[in-house]
Amino acid sequence: MSALVSPQEIVRSGLCIGCGSCVAQAKVPDVQMNFDDYGQLKPTGDSAWFNQRSVSFTQTCPFSPEAKNEDDLADHLYPTAEQQHPSIGRFEKAYVGHVGEADFRLQGSSGGMVTWVATELMRQGLIDGVAHVIATEDPQTNGRYFKYRIARTEAEVRAGAKSRYYPIELSEILKIIREVPGRYAVVGIPCFIKAVQLLRREDPVIRERIKFTLGLFCGHMKSARFVESFAWQMNVPVNQVEQVEYRLKDHNHPANWYNAQLTLRNGQKVNRLWWHLADGDWGAGFYMNSACNYCDDVVAETADISFGDAWVEPYSSDGKGTNVVVVRSPVIEQLVANAIQENRLELKAVDAEFVHQTQAAGFRQRREGLAYRLTWQKKGVKPRKRVAPDAKTPTRQRKLIYRTRYYISAWSNRVFKFARQLQKPQIYYRWARVAAAIYHGLAYHQGKFKEMFKRHSELKG
């Protein structure tokens, strides 16, 4: 190991994703995960711990340059995998489709597969609990809209259905798993699953108790300010928001027409399509965690099974939702194969290229875009990734898009913070509309100013 790093160095270098693995391992009091000024979760507490360089932290932080990368982890976890692909990693089988059983598909944001697999593992007696994300009961009191919890019944597992584009962290759940004997599955985005796998290598208790990992395809992590922006733009008080639905399912609309809904304390519900929100274009990168600029895993390559949306036709137009699934664990592959035979799952096999196609934009950002970003000057800890720095391959157009997305990500956090401090949402709106219009013109219309002006007018409404 060439260089040890501390939590402080990872945070200051913009490489902390807020997973909470470091806090779960801390053996000192008063160390916890809290929101920073931008609405991202970061470790806080004992300064001696925060500034200490250690082997354990260096080996288990998912963005540490000295930690095992996804290829190394997958080689160890899935040595007998039937297939291997540069983007998808090692895997047994890949599928596209949805759950045919009960109302799993209806209750999920996509095809219902995440909840079904977690439930099936419990039904088959393979696990005692599932660590997954649920909505908090009183977000205005506890300060968070979502959190991890361990579900121990099928009803509790199913209560965790739906997508949550909100900062969450694993510290308390990992502590519970270490303290309470049992067999657990963990659901998480790629970097969280990587953090779990790194910790499993170092901690025999965690290794023995976490039996399965369920990964979610990921574009990037949003900050908590995204919810506040929803409230601002829907003209409702932020302090009255009780529930957040990021993707309200509507069978009459294509699956990629995201519809955000807020439920207030008085029961009132308000909603708006993301397309009509100033910061609703996912690809523009509003509120993105800075660490996401240095991630090269789209499909949770270290998870036993991972799930995404099938963003290709005819699936993206199906408002009921469709999953693309990559299976790496032989045990889970057998569960899936049995359920297909029993007509409980409506899945068909696909190849790695199909999976890649469904996430093409994400792979451009995290492979070509990442290679380009690695050529930029950066202060602090330098990430070590599976792609080599490359400023020659991207076209001038692609470079402009990557630069624009990077600055939108950084400045959306800063401008929102300023507008929030002054309680003047219009400061943020005006900036966001211009930024979104510029990105729209660059990304979809070869930089045509006419299209930028058109999109800005649409957002002004």
List keywords for this structure.
461 residues; alpha+beta; Aspartate Aminotransferase, domain 2; 3-stranded antiparallel sheet; 8-stranded mixed sheet
Write up what this structure looks like.
There is one protein chain. This protein has 461 residues and is an alpha+beta fold. The chain has 3 domains: 7-60, no CATH class; 70-222 and 286-362, Aspartate Aminotransferase, domain 2 (3-Layer(aba) Sandwich), CATH 3.40.640; 371-460, no CATH class. It is 40% helix and 17% strand. The protein is built from 19 helices and 15 strands. The strands form 4 sheets. Strands 7-6-8-9-13-14-5-15 form an 8-stranded mixed beta sheet, sandwiched between helices. A 3-stranded antiparallel beta sheet has the order 10-11-12, covered by helices on one side. It has a two-stranded antiparallel sheet with strand order 1-2. β1 and β2 (41-44) form a beta hairpin. α18 packs antiparallel against α19 (449-460). The mean pLDDT is 95. Residues 183-352 form the Coenzyme F420 hydrogenase/dehydrogenase beta subunit C-terminal domain. Keywords: Oxidoreductase. It holds the Pfam family FrhB_FdhB_N. One of its GO terms (molecular function) is coenzyme F420 hydrogenase activity. Residues 95-175 form the Coenzyme F420 hydrogenase/dehydrogenase beta subunit N-terminal domain.
